Amino acid sequence: MAGIRHVEIWLADLENDLREWGWLLDRLGFTLMAEWENGQSWSAGGAYLSLTRSPNSTAVPHDRRRPGVNHLAFKARDPTSVDSVMDEAPEHGWIPLYDDRYPNAGGDEHYAGWLENQSGFKAEIVAESD
Q: What φ, ψ does residue 11 adopt, rounded to 5°?
């Protein structure tokens, strides 16, 4: 059976990162399913995303351009939903990327917005009609 059961993201700045990720995940329809001293888990569509304090918080800050995961892409209902998230994101610590090519930075048939949070994590919000 193919599919992703969960993804775990290790965070250095737990308080700030949980605030930023929590807003985005809630806004995209995820449900907070567990919370503990060093993290949270959010679920949607049968899979979940775990946000956990890294045991190595002295490491170099996250750099999405290094080998590893570059970004996570999330579904939005439609282009209007993408626009709404992109409009609200800066108030919640997320910086829009590729403004000059929004909403088609991924190609003419791909309606999406890209965000980066203060810790350098990148998220893509994609209209489901893609």
A: -115, 145
- Distance separating alpha carbons of residues 5 and 88, to the nearest angstrom: 29
User: The tokens of 49 are what?
Assistant: 């995303």
**What's the pTM?**
0.88
- pLDDT tens profile 15-65: 999 999 999 999 999 999 999 999 999 999 889 999 999 887 666 677 777
d(C-alpha 22, C-alpha 40), whole Å: 9
How far apart CA 89 and CA 92 sit, in angstroms, is 5
- Which of the following CATH numbers is that of domain 6-55+70-127: 3.30.460.10, 3.10.180.10, 1.10.10.60, 3.40.50.700? 3.10.180.10
Q: Cβ(73)–Cβ(102) under 8 Å?
A: no
